[in-house]
Amino acid sequence: MTDHEQLVLLLAARSARRGNFTLASGRQSSLYIDARLTTMTPEGQRLIGRLGLQAIRDAGWRVDAVGGLTLGADPIAYAICHSSADTAQPLRAFTVRKEPKDHGTGKLVEGPLASGDRVVIVEDVITTGGSAARAVEAVKRVGALPLGVLAVVDREEGGREQLEALGLPVLALTTASEIVPHIAPE
Questions:
Q1: Count of C-beta atoms within a 10 Å radius of residue 165
Q2: Measured between alpha carbons, how far is 134 from 147 in angstroms, rounded to an integer?
Q3: Domain residues for 98?
Q4: Residue 79: CATH number of its domain
Q5: Alpha helix (H) residue ranges in the chain
Q6: What are the tens digits of pLDDT across the range 13-30?
Q7: Which range is least confidently modeled, 18-22, 53-57, 76-80?
Q8: How far is residue 168's CA from residue 108's CA, in Å, rounded to a whole number?
Q9: Domain total for the chain?
Q10: pTM for the predicted model, two decimal places
Q11: How many percent of the chain have pLDDT more than 70?
C-alpha cells in the first residue's frame, strides 16, 4: 500500500465523521474531518511529513520554511520540517498565531521565519481557504514570500479556487472524495 493510500485510510478511520456539523467557516455539513486526530499521531506524522515534503519538491517549490495558522497547521509543519532534516535542503517550521501576543514582542508569527524567506503555507483541511489566507497575510507582513498552499485534505468546497484566485497554487495530499468511501458506518 502506498503512503497516499495509507493516509486516506488513516483519515477515514480516525478523522472523518458523518452527521450534522457546523464547520470553522460557519458552513453546515454532513461531513466533519478533524484532521488533528491523524496529524497528531506517530503514523500521521510519518506519512504527512514524507508526503508533504515530496509534494513540495515535486511542485518545484524552493522553500525555506513551512507553517500556517495555529493549531491545525502546527503538526503538519513540524512533520514536514522533521522529514526534511536529513535532506540537502532542510526546511524550518513556523506558526501563525490567531492574534498577536499581548506581551513580550507581540509577535503574530512565531519561529525562525525571516524577511525574504520563501514559504509554503500548510493547512489541515481546506474548506473556504480562509485560514490559509490569514496565514498568507501574516507572513507577508514579516516580509516572507508565500509560494503556495499545501493541505492535508481539500474538502472540494471552493477553498482551493479562492486561494488560487489570490495567485496561490494549492496542493492537497488527499481530498474529501477520496476519504468518504472509506468512512465506516457508525
A1: 9
A2: 15
A3: 3-182
A4: 3.40.50.2020
A5: 3-14, 36-39, 42-58, 74-84, 130-141, 159-165, 176-179
A6: 999 999 999 887 788 999
A7: 18-22
A8: 21
A9: 1
A10: 0.95
A11: 96
